[in-house]
Design goal:
185 residues, mainly alpha, Arp2/3 complex 21 kDa subunit ARPC3, 77% helix, transferase, membrane, heptaprenyl diphosphate synthase activity, Hpre_diP_synth_I, Hpre_diP_synt_I
Length: 185
């Protein structure tokens, strides 16, 4: 994989995440019993980036997606909520991924990301409202986060196994990942 191929791939992932995020934002909330809950379809791109790119590049995808989505239709408050949720989710998924595929599947990693995304957003809401009572909404959002995370994980698992380009990037990243783990021992 050349440097230009990798840059194009990063840009395409970020663009796909932005488009998916903007489309999802325009859809009314599908869950009447959990106001504000969404599937988080753009997190599909984050999972694909985590499994097909090294840390620095996958982090670039996440930041580009956050910034561009905000610039194309967000506000400062949506940026704060999105940033807290996306970063907590991203780093949490990276940590859980380190347990290895024998212990946690892509679906489990995605479900972890769904829960952590909601925790990050509720933490910002608590900070803005200056009360921790907002966190009482956590059980409902955690349940929704698990369901959404499982759905996104299933979709990511399917794409990573059936899309040849993703398989190729994953194979290159796997070799890179094995080389860096060998250097740290």
């Amino acid at each position: 994989m050349t440097k230009n191929q990798k840059l194009v791939y990063i840009a395409l992932l970020a663009a796909q995440g932005v488009v998916i995020g903007l489309i999802e934002r325009s859809i009314p909330f599908p869950f009447a019993f959990a106001p504000g809950a969404k599937l988080g379809l753009a997190n599909l791109i984050t999972i694909i980036a985590i499994f097909t790119l090294p840390f620095k590049d996958s982090f670039t995808v996440v930041w580009m997606r956050l910034l561009l989505t905000t610039l194309l239709g967000g506000t400062l408050s949506t940026f704060l909520y999105s940033c807290a949720g996306a970063l907590l989710s991203y780093f949490g998924m990276l940590i859980v991924k380190q347990l290895g595929p024998k212990r946690v599947s892509i679906i489990g990693i995605s479900a972890t990301g769904g829960i952590l995304h909601n925790i990050g957003q509720l933490a910002v809401a608590s900070w803005i409202a200056q009360t921790w009572t907002v966190m009482l909404y956590l059980p409902v959002l955690s349940f929704m986060g698990i369901l959404a995370g499982v759905a996104i994980g299933i979709a990511a698992n399917y794409l990573l196994e059936h899309v040849e380009t993703l398989r190729n990037f994953r194979a290159v990243y796997g070799r890179f990942d094995q080389q860096t783990k060998g250097e740290h021992k």
